[in-house]
Structures are given as C-alpha cells and as structure tokens.
C-alpha cells in the first residue's frame, strides 16, 4: 500500500533494477532473517553468555548420548539477552532452543544470496567508468535486475560444541574462516574438528520473502543447515533423521517516507508501507537421532502462533528394543498480546501475530519431577509487528508510536514522532523470571537496561503545539526552544465564520475572524483567513504570539481556533550513562524451597559511577540518502532521503550484542554464611568495528570483530572482607597471517580478509537512439562504497597469576609459544616460571611428527609427544617424555589398528634417557573397541565386548586373545545380547549364570577375571571382581544411580541429587 502526499512519485522501470524487491534485498532495513529456530541457536554463538555481554545461559539437561569416549548432550537452552518485539518463538518456546551438543550451522544473507561465492573485484583497483570497460561492464552485470551476482559475502555461523566461529566464501569459492581455526571445512559442508571427528551438514530449509514488490524468479534463500551424521575416528557414527515441514509467518511491517531533493520530476513526499511475509517452502525438522541401535525421538504438535507451525512437545530415548529409557514432556502455553494489529491485507494472519509460544514446564515422565518456568508478564508483549519498540527493538510501551521517529532534513522535520526511549518495565516483558528445579529450589533472574557512557553532542527533536480560541482576544505568547535559525510552523485555522479553502482568490465576505502570528515586537508575520493548515518557515524570534481578531460584527454563536505547531530541535553536549535499549542481568537469586540462600549481583560501573559499557552497533539512524536515476533519456539524477522504521536488522545477532562491557564486578553473597561470600572483577578487551558510517549506503555491513571482543585481560578475586586474594592477567597477540588465504586479500590492508564493494547506480542516460527516437543503449554512472571484514588469530601469549598473602605476594608466569610455520594453532611450548624455578612443557602434534595420515584426517590437535623439563637457576633437567604412536599410513593402520587411526603404543623416556614401552594396544575390532593391550611388565589383558559390541563385559588380565577359545567368548557375548533385548531392570539371572560359567572354566583358571553387566543407556548393573564378590548398582525411576549394594543386599554407597543452577 502506498500513500502519496502532495504529489505523486513516478518511478520508471529501468534496465538496471530499482524495483522494490532488489532494493529490499540490499537494504539493511529489510534484511533476510534466519528461521526462528536458527535465530535462537545463533544467539549462543553470536552473543556469548559471559559477563562482558551481561548475559547468562540456562540449561535444562534432557539426555547425554555416549558413543565410546564421545558425548553429545541434549538439552533445552535459554539465552537471557531479552526478547525483541519482532522475535518469533522457536519450536521449544520464546527464548528457548533445542541444543544437540551445541551443534549448529546457519547463514546470514547480506545483499543477495551468494550461492557459493561472491563476484571477484580487484581489491586494490576498481573504477567502473566507461573508459575502463572491464570494470564498467562488471558493474552493469552486477546491478542488472534479478542478477545473481553479489559483492557482499554472506556470513555463516557454526558451532560444533568444541569449536565455534564464522566463515564466508571468497571470490574464488574458497572458505575463509573468521578468525582462522583448526576446524577443517569442506565445500560440501563437512566439518572436521582437530580430533578427527567429522560433522556432516546439508541445506535444511528453503524460504521466500514476499512484500514490497514481486520476488524475482526462483528468489528463495537457504539460511539454515542441518546435521545429518557425526563420524568418529573409531568408525562409529551418530545419525540424524528429519521430517519435512512448511509454514509461513509475517515478519516485518515496513513504513517509510521518501523525500525528494533537487529533483526534476519528483517533488512530493511519498509514504510507503507494506508487510513482508516469510514462506518457508520446506524445512527439515529433527525427528530422531540414532546411535548404536538406540534412538532419541522428537515428537511435535501444532501451534497457534505460526500458520502450520510445529511445537516440540516430547523427547523420548529408547533402547534398541524400543524400551523407554527417558521420557520428557514440554508443557506449552502462549504469551498473548492485547493490542490490535494492522496487517495490510493479511487479516487471516492477525491471530498468529497475537501469540508467542511459551515453554511453561519440562516434566520428566519417568518420575514426574519437573522444571517450572515463570516469565515477566506484568506488561504483555504487543503483537509482533508493533512499533512500540526502543532503538534496538525491545518493547518500550509507547502506545502512540507509529513507526518512525522525528528526523531533521534541512529546515524541515519529518516522521511520526515515535518515542524510542527504552523502559525497563516493558523491556523485560517475555524474559525468563524464575526457574523452579525438581528439588523445589528456585533461581530468579532480575534485569536492568544496558547502558554505556556517552560523551558528545546529542540532538533532541520534539513536536510542540499552542492552541487559542476567539474567547481569548489577547491571544497567547509562546517560546520556541531550538538551536536552529528558523522554525518550521504548521498552523491550523478553523472558523465557523470563515470559508474553507476553495478556488484561488476566495476570501471571507462579511463579518469573520482573522488569525495572526506575531513576533515579540507585535509585528504581524502571518495572517490566516481561510480554514486550512498552513505550513511555512520563519526566522527564529525571542518569542511569538498568536491571536484571533474579529472583523465586523461576528455573531456570538460563531467561533474560531488557531493552533500553532512546530518542532524544536535542540543540540547540546552531554556526558551521562545512556541507554538505547537492550537488557542485562542485574541479579541472580537462589532459593532453597522458600528461603533465600545466595545472591549474585553484577555491577557495570567504574569507580566514578560511569558505565563500563560500549555501544558496538550501527549508529541510531532511521534515514539515509539515496541517489536515484530520474530519467533514462537525459540522465537526470536527484537525491531522496529515505526515512523508515528499523526493519529486520534489529533481529539479526550476527554482529553481536549492541552494548557490551569492558569491566564487570560479580558479587556473590552467601546469605547464611557471609564468610563464604566473594567478589570477582573481570576486565575485557573489546574492539569496535572499523566500518565507516556512510549515510548514503544503507546496506547491512558485517561488523565482525566478535573475535576481538570479550577477551579477558584481568580477573581479580576478593574475599568476603573485600581483600584482594588473587589476580590473573593475560596478554595477547593479534596475528594476521591467515588473512592472506583469501583470494580478495590486499597487501595494503593486512588486518582485513576482504574489503567488499557496494555498487549503486547514480544516473542513467540514453547514449544511442534509433530513427524513431527509441533509446537503443544507455550510459550509467555508478557510485562505489566499501566496508571491511577484518580477522586475526588472537594468540594468548602470557598469563600471570598472583596470589596475595598478608606478608608477600607470589606470582607465576605462564607463556605460550606456537608453531612458527602456521601449520596449526595449538601451543607447542608452555613455560611456567615461578620465582627462580621454571617448568617447560613441549608438545608435538601430527605436523611436527610428519604423520600424513593424521594430517589428512585433520587429527592435528592431539599431542603425540609431550616433554616436561624443569629449570632451577641455570640448570635444566628433563622430567618426563611421552610418545603416543599412531599409524602414519593407511597400510600401517590396516595392520595395527583395524584400519582406524587409533594409538597403538605409548612410549616413555626416563631421566637416564631410557625409552620404555608403557603400553601396547595390540588389537582393535572394526568398531574401534580395544580387544587386547599389554603393559610394560609384559602382562597382557583381554577385553570382551558385548551388548552388541557397545559395552565391555569381561576383562581378563594375564591372557591373550588367542588364549581364549572363541566358543567361550561367543557364549557370554550372545548372553549379553539376549540380556540387552530384555530391556532395563530385567532379571539378569541367565546372563550372570553365563558369566559365572565363563569365570569358572578351567582353561581360564590362571587369569584374573572381572565381569560386568549393564542396563544399556542407563549404566553398569553389576561388577564382579576376581574375588567373586559382586557389587550391584541400583537406579531410581529417572535412571539415576541411587545406591550400590553387595551380594547380600547391604548398602555400600548411597547417592543424593541436587540441581546445579
């Protein structure tokens, strides 16, 4: 919908695209957003839960998958950074996400979607003018309507649990990590961490955004990716299965003014508004996780806040026999809005705008224990398209907001006068207030507004009015408070005795009223005779006066009013703690039942009460200057100011939290025992981004200095008497070496991986006409802007730890040295200096050892050799040396480790430089299970694996695998498989009998035998050592270890559980 004010705006269709769909894709105000679930997960990557962000994370554990030594925890995570008005709830609930080991991969589209790589442009020289034909033609091809070429790289965010980061594709299609890490990323989205664990991803959704223009052909985006399997170095794997879903939701209500300037054809102000709708054409929804024959199942239901959306309602864990091991129910409700939204033709979507999915309880159905959740709901969130938001998108409760604040342009003021100031009473709406644990204990969260110390000039624009009637013959005097030299007045004159505006020259006849504007000397500046609104600019005066006079004998039943409206623009230098929006954690309280036990308070102030915050986001601007090509024949160009509401760029977290902190004090108070209270002060390095602020480029620039934020430089510990007891200090080095991996690297800017271009069209003019005057070819004038993507390897160089005592201080300095050849980023030498004593630990990895097999599988973070030495004075002595041997080729792996890259020998070197074989791993099975090992005393041990090769069921010390007849092994392996199929808590008599028969076999009488039984996915059920005295392990209804008993039922150990906050 468009509303034309004063005059119509005419835009011709050009060969180069200025259609709304192209403009919307490139403008930060209509940024392509990720899916609700991916957006919620991205918070944990983009905004670390740390004191420097003022954010904490809440975790409700569901189940931990264990495959060998690899663990994959499944939990529900909450990110306490607040809820924005436009935020759409995930399938778990508003603010919550389903975490599978913290694994995620998503993409923030910048400009057009890259589809693999960006367009290459010379990083040092680009001049798209007609005389430089190559650059000129390249610019034309990029700016063509529906072009798939793009100069802005999309940013991918990933997390593997053990590692996280961001990357983009350069112009050669190569993946460039920000910052560089030892994670190997392949084009097919296979990630390999430095332990050799592989994570396989694929595209997980296909979305299309409709609104503000017709989408281009095949104009859809892929913003989310799904994990399909995890492959361990042992060859074992975890598989993920999905179901397909499609849904839609409204995500933005764009409102904008376009004010032409020095234009030939465009003279009026245009108001434009439209609602954008996201159609999720397909989304892969996690259905189950398979591991070693067992499954974690995710069960969904319908929801009322997204059309055709899904809600995660249940999580089950089942063993290979489908017995229920773990069973959680997610109880849902809704945050309900009470205002009345407008959806511009999408009326059927209004009910969805009024609700947000709420996670109310998490119930363990095995024992009926539950987590109960409460939220801040005193002031219900408005509908998701509401304009009642502060500067960064949080609810501020301003009912009169309509989308656009006042913006000054020349001598005039535009906009709706929205109040964007934050209000903590509304900003906390929808945020988590309290979590009650199954034990009855509670944790409460209290918030306050983010702020930062502001020093500079601040401009306030306000709308004022002054009204009089004919009953006030003396009129009224008012002052205008502004720093400008002029005042933009809007005066409305209404009289029952005067004519309405009509044909030119129509004036009142007979008795009537006259409205007047006078200055402080009673000089009449303006006269008003016609009923209408007058708009004009006057020079600033000390004061003004308006009055209404009678002309002739006006009847007493006639009346008149004169209403003066004007804007006051006041700029002044200020120094204060300023908030533009966003919330931070102020206090955490912990209760045991109903009694307060602990308080943790966070202070974001320095010793002078100045905020330690830094504002890191874009400047608070709602306008930009846009050059437009008015006429394709004559090449007319003009400027227009575009003023709009904030759009979607407030929703993306790719640039982190807008306000972060350099120093935070954490005060921990034990309410019942003050002697256990303490205080920690953290100080951080936070580097702001270097992108210039250019009002003529409303593109979203990736300000990626996340790698240089939240870097801990000092941590101080104080006791309950506020006495300093310990201090840790850290130093770092910013190394730019890996930036030159980018195809778009420029040697003139070593701290950058790329300086992307943004190309705009300034003017278009016809260059050639045919005989009929038809334009056959056009010349274009381009504008070029650039922004910067920086990166660095932040190397920890030293850590100085000082303990403070009554009489002296003791310091220890740890320094780190890294591979000078940049083959990896692991420390190769760690020196610890303490007084006159130093300890040195030297590490060698696959690269140092030349193990090409491990390098090829990216197993480059495993120390293969560790040497420890000690220096006293000038004397250095080697204390220990350990070598772990892995196969260096596939043929060696086939021979020694069943084809897998696993260790086969550990060597140690003593003080006399004598090398000893500590242990030899003699034999593995194809699943990576160790079957036999031999210690340095020559004693071999056999391990027999049962329960479908997932658990060790017998350990035979002194034997070799060849000493044990295969039928004996098969007898207990088959019995364990039968026991597994019976389910948890079954009668183990048959299996225990088989184990006893095995133990008593005369062929094994010379060996020390320990046997084990299990409830798969629960834990060990019994252990029978060589003595034959069995211990049994008993679990409660929630499958937690409850007690250990002997063969007579006597309790040996008992376990009680509390919940960590």
UniProtKB/TrEMBL annotation:
Residues 1-24 form the signal peptide. Keywords: Signal. Gene3D superfamilies: RHS repeat-associated core. This is YD repeat-containing protein. It comes from Chryseobacterium indologenes (Flavobacterium indologenes).
């Amino acid at each position: 919908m468009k509303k034309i004010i004063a005059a119509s705006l005419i835009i011709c269709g050009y060969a180069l695209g200025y259609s709304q769909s192209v403009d919307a894709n490139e403008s930060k105000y209509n940024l392509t957003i990720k899916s609700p679930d991916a957006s919620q997960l991205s918070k944990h990557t983009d905004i670390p839960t740390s004191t420097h962000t003022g954010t904490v994370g809440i975790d409700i554990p569901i189940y931990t998958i264990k495959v060998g030594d690899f663990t994959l925890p499944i939990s529900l995570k909450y990110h306490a950074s607040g809820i924005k008005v436009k935020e759409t709830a995930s399938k778990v609930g508003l603010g919550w996400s389903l975490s599978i080991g913290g694994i995620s991969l998503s993409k923030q589209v910048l400009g057009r979607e890259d589809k693999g790589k960006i367009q290459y442009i010379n990083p040092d020289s680009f001049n798209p003018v007609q005389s430089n034909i190559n650059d000129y033609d390249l610019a034309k091809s990029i700016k063509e309507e529906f072009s798939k070429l793009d100069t802005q790289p999309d940013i991918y965010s990933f997390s593997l649990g053990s590692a996280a980061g961001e990357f983009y594709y350069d112009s050669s299609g190569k993946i460039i990590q920000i910052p560089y890490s030892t994670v190997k990323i392949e084009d097919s989205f296979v990630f390999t961490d430095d332990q050799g664990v592989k994570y396989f991803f694929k595209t997980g959704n296909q979305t299309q955004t409709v609104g503000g223009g017709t989408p281009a052909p095949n104009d859809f985006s892929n913003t989310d990716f799904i994990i399909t399997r995890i492959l361990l170095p042992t060859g074992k794997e975890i598989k993920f299965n999905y179901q397909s879903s499609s849904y839609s939701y409204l995500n933005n209500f764009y409102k904008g003014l376009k004010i032409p300037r020095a234009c030939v054809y465009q003279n009026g102000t245009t108001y434009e508004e439209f609602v954008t709708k996201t159609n999720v054409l397909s989304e892969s929804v996690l259905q189950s996780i398979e591991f070693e024959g067992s499954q974690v199942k995710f069960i969904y239901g319908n929801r009322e806040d997204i059309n055709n959306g899904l809600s995660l309602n249940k999580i089950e864990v089942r063993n290979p026999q489908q017995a229920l091991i773990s069973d959680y129910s997610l109880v849902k409700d809704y945050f309900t809005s009470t205002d009345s939204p407008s959806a511009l033709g999408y009326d059927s979507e209004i009910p969805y705008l009024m609700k947000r999915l709420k996670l109310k309880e998490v119930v363990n159905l095995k024992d009926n224990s539950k987590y109960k959740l409460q939220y801040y709901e005193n002031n219900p969130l408005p509908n998701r398209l509401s304009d009642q938001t502060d500067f960064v998108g949080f609810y501020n409760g301003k009912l009169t907001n309509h989308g656009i604040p006042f913006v000054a342009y020349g001598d005039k003021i535009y906009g709706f006068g929205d109040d964007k100031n934050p209000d903590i009473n509304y900003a906390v709406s929808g945020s988590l207030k309290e979590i009650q644990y199954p034990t009855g204990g509670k944790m409460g969260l209290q918030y306050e507004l983010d702020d930062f110390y502001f020093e500079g000039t601040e401009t306030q624009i306000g709308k004022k009015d002054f009204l009089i009637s004919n009953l006030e013959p003396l009129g009224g005097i008012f002052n205008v408070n502004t720093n400008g030299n002029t005042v933009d007045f809007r005066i409305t004159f209404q009289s029952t005795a005067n004519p309405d505006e009509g044909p030119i020259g129509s004036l009142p006849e007979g008795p009537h009223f006259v409205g007047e504007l006078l200055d402080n000397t009673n000089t009449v500046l303006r006269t008003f005779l016609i009923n209408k609104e007058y708009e004009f600019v006057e020079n600033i005066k000390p004061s003004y006066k308006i009055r209404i006079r009678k002309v002739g004998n006006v009847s007493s039943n006639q009346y008149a009013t004169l209403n003066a409206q004007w804007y006051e623009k006041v700029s002044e230098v200020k120094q204060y703690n300023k908030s533009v929006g966003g919330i931070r954690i102020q206090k955490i309280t912990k209760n045991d039942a109903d009694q307060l036990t602990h308080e943790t308070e966070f202070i974001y102030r320095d010793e002078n009460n100045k905020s330690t915050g830094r504002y890191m986001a874009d400047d608070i601007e709602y306008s930009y200057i846009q050059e437009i090509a008015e006429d394709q024949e004559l090449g007319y160009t003009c400027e227009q100011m575009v003023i709009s509401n904030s759009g979607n760029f407030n929703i993306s977290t790719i640039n982190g939290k807008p306000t972060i902190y350099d120093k935070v004090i954490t005060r921990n108070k034990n309410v019942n025992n003050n002697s256990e209270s303490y205080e920690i002060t953290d100080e951080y390095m936070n580097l702001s981004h270097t992108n210039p602020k250019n009002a003529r480029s409303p593109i979203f620039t990736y300000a990626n200095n996340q790698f240089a934020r939240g870097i801990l430089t000092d941590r101080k510990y104080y006791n309950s008497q506020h006495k300093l007891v310990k201090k840790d200090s850290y130093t770092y080095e910013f190394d730019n070496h890996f930036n030159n991996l980018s195809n778009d690297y420029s040697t003139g800017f070593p701290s950058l991986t790329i300086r992307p271009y943004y190309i705009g069209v300034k003017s278009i003019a016809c260059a050639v006409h045919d005989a009929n005057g038809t334009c056959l070819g056009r010349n274009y004038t381009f504008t070029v802007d650039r922004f910067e993507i920086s990166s660095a390897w932040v190397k920890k160089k030293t850590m100085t730890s000082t303990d403070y005592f009554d009489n002296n201080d003791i310091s220890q300095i740890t320094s780190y040295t890294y591979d000078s050849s940049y083959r990896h980023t692991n420390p190769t030498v760690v020196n610890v200096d303490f007084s006159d004593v130093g300890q040195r630990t030297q590490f060698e990895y696959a690269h140092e050892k030349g193990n090409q097999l491990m390098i090829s599988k990216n197993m480059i973070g495993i120390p293969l050799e560790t040497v420890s030495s000690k220096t006293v004075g000038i004397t250095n002595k080697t204390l220990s040396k350990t070598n772990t041997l892995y196969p260096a080729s596939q043929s060696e792996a086939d021979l020694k480790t069943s084809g897998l890259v696993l260790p086969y020998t550990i060597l140690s070197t003593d003080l006399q430089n004598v090398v000893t074989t500590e242990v030899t791993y003699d034999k593995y099975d194809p699943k990576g299970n160790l079957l036999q090992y031999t210690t340095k005393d020559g004693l071999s041990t056999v391990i027999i694996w049962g329960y479908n090769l997932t658990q060790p069921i017998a350990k035979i010390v002194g034997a070799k695998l060849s000493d044990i007849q295969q039928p004996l092994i098969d007898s207990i392996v088959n019995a364990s498989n039968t026991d597994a199929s019976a389910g948890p808590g079954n009668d183990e008599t048959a299996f225990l009998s088989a184990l006893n028969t095995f133990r008593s076999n005369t062929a094994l009488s010379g060996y020390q035998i320990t046997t084990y039984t299990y409830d798969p996915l629960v834990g060990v059920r019994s252990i029978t050592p060589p003595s034959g005295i069995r211990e049994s392990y008993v679990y409660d209804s929630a499958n937690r270890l409850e007690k250990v008993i002997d063969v007579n039922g006597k309790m040996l150990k008992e376990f009680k559980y509390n919940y960590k906050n």
